[in-house]
C-alpha cells in the first residue's frame, strides 16, 4: 500500500505540467523517479518564460517603448492657396425704370433677349402727354398774338409822343414787356412738354441681355417701379468676400483658378480689384477676379476660387495633427536617439491641413504624427515612417 501511494504521488507532477504547458508531453511508459520529474518541471517552466519574453519583445522591440507613427520631413516647393466662394457678376448693368407715370401699351422684349443701346423696350400710352403738348402750343399761339398787339399799341403811342402823355407811353411799353415775358414762359412750357414725349418710349441705355422682366402690357407704372434688368456679360467676373484675417494677403495680379457650379473644367484668372475697406458688418473684404477667357455663363453663378497667395521654392511642412499646441507656443515631438523631444516651432498660420514651418525643424527630422499621450523624453519606436515633400 505505501509503495502504491508513493507511485501515485510521483505521477501527479507530470500530469500537472502537461496541462499548463504549451509544450506537448508524451505519455510515460514507466513511472519516473522523483528527481527526473522535478527536472522536467523546471525545463518546462523555463521554456514558458522564454516564450513569454519573446512575445513581449516582439510587441515592444525596445523592451517597453511604444511604437509610434512618424514622418521624415522632406523640403520641397510649397504653395499657399486661399480657397473662397463667390458668384459671377458684371459691372455693366442697369435697372430699367420709367421717368413718368403712365400705362404700358407694349413690351417689346422678353427675358434672355439681347438688346443694343437705344433699342426700344417698353412703349407707354402718350395720348395724355400729346394733348398737353397741343394745349401748350395753342396757349403759346394766343400769347404770341397778344404780344403782337402790345407791340402795335406801343408803336402807335410812340408815334403820337407829342400828343400823348409820358405815362401812356410807359404803360404801352410795360404791356409789351409783359406780353413778351408771357410768350417766353409759354415757349418753355411747350418745350418741356415736348421733351417729355420721348419718355413714353423706354429704350435700352446699354447693350446686353435682359435678365428679368416684371412688366406687362396694361400695367400702370410709376418711376419707383423696376420694369426689367439689363446686363452686359462682356466683363463677366467673379466677386468673392475674403475674411479680414487674410485681407493683407490679397494683391492685384495674384493668379487664381476658378470652377463654376455644375462644371468640371477649371478656368484660369487673376485678381484685378481689391476693395479699399473692409465691410464693418460682415468683417469681409470685397475682391474681384477676372477670367483669362470669359466663359459663356450666367450671371450670379456660384464659383469656387483658389487664389495663389505665395509660392516657396523649398520649405518644410508638418501636419496640424502633429502639433502639440498652436500659436506662439506651437511645438512638435522630434525623435532623436530613440526619444521624443518636445521642439518649439514657428510657422505660417494658414487654413490648411499642413503648415509651413519657418523655424525649429529641418529637413530629415522625424516627427511624431500623433502626439497624444507622449511625454518629453519618452522612449519611442518609429512605426510606418513616411516621407513628406508637400
Protein model, in words:
The two termini are 85 Å apart. The protein is built from four helices and 21 strands. It has four domains: 2-59; 67-76 and 313-388, conserved putative lor/sdh protein from methanococcus maripaludis s2 fold (Beta Barrel), CATH 2.40.420.20; 83-91 and 233-312, Beta Barrel (Elongation Factor Tu (Ef-tu), domain 3); 94-203. α1 packs parallel to α2 and α3 packs antiparallel against α4 (166-196). The chain has a six-stranded antiparallel barrel with strand order 2-11-14-13-12-15. Strands 3-10-8-5 form a four-stranded antiparallel β-sheet, with no helix packed on it. By secondary structure, it is of the alpha+beta class. The radius of gyration is 49 Å and the shape is elongated.
Give a quick rundown of the structure.
The chain has 390 residues and is of the alpha+beta class. The chain contains 4 helices and 21 strands.
